[in-house]
């Protein structure tokens, strides 16, 4: 029987100077080089210099997350009349697919370049019972870098038994480059509501208005403007670690909507987020404590990067009112997220 594909690194480039490096170990984006307003190129994602370092413990730097991104309460859910138990790898809860989620497995990889784009096709089959999930899930994820400065992620999955699926990407962005925090970045998110969480960061079930709260990003605001506010939700997340419920939810899985815009004032770099997903997890890296040395041996401290994870809502399998993450045989799970880059004058 053939073993897993050997670890490799692939580089996608476009004509405007964008460059993405990806390893098939976990589908991890190890570098994302983006020009600023003056054409100066810097790497704008956290991670390591050596690809081998991604095989050790780290906080999901740049990874493909599955089967289920975010948390499931107590690592349990019921489906088709049967309770399923998953690994509890985040206290008493399940996080990002378990002990060996999709960010830790070897994906098969194949280049798929065209005249106006450069792409990498990744495939992985998660067998029935892996990490406690039911059904064999066949996954295909395509990273595409276009000459329009769009980094597009196409997700696709099928199953042979009823299961759940919630795929996302976990890069920590810092549009200023390494060595600075993200508190001066301004963020816009088209979301009228967010999901409050309990002490374990599990949604309470309430969908709360952002009006009058630090979670209102309907007008661009500096991330650091209210991050230290006396708000119990910010205390629980050690900053932002919450799902914002997006307003412009696409009516189908092929038409992404513009849902967020991130701007770094000093460099002028801009990143827009378009997606077909109903939620966006805004995570400011509150769990980073400086103990991990990243690129150029720099410590990754609190607020060193910002994750904007497009997703279905956390703990959806236990919350019937949330958008469903169930996938049945004969159905095809499809999702698209685009990170689009530019610069202010």
Structure summarized in a few sentences:
The protein is mostly beta strands and 345 residues long. It has 1 helix and 26 strands.
Characterize the structure shown.
This protein has 345 residues and is mainly beta. The chain has one domain: Beta-galactosidase, Chain A, domain 5. It is 2% helix and 38% strand. It contains one helix and 26 strands. The chain has one helix at residues 232-237; strands spanning 9-13, 19-23, 28-35, 41-43, 63-65, 71-72, 76-79, 82-85, 94-95, 108-111, 117-126, 137-146, 150-159, 163-164, 168-170, 186-189, 191-194, 208-209, 221-222, 241-246, 257-263, 269-275, 279-283, 307-311, 326-327, 333-343. Strands 10-11-12-13-26-22-21-16-19 form a nine-stranded antiparallel sheet, with no helix packed on it. The chain is globular and about 60 Å long. It starts with 8 loop residues before the first strand and ends with a strand. The mean pLDDT is 96.
Keywords:
nine-stranded antiparallel β-sheet, five-stranded antiparallel β-sheet, Beta-galactosidase, Chain A, domain 5, 2% helix, 26 strands, mainly beta, globular
In the predicted model, the low-confidence regions spanning at least 5 consecutive residues are none
Order of helices and strands: EEEEEEEEEEEEEEEEEEEHEEEEEEE
User: How much of the polypeptide forms β-strand, as a percent range?
Assistant: 35-45%
Oligomeric assembly: single chain
Overall mean pLDDT score? Answer: 96
Distance between the termini: 56 Å
The domain tally reads: 1
Helix content range of the residues, please? under 10%
Number of strands: 26
Number of helices: 1
CATH class categorisation: Mainly Beta
Q: Numbering strands along the chain, what is their spatial order in the largest sheet?
A: 10-11-12-13-26-22-21-16-19
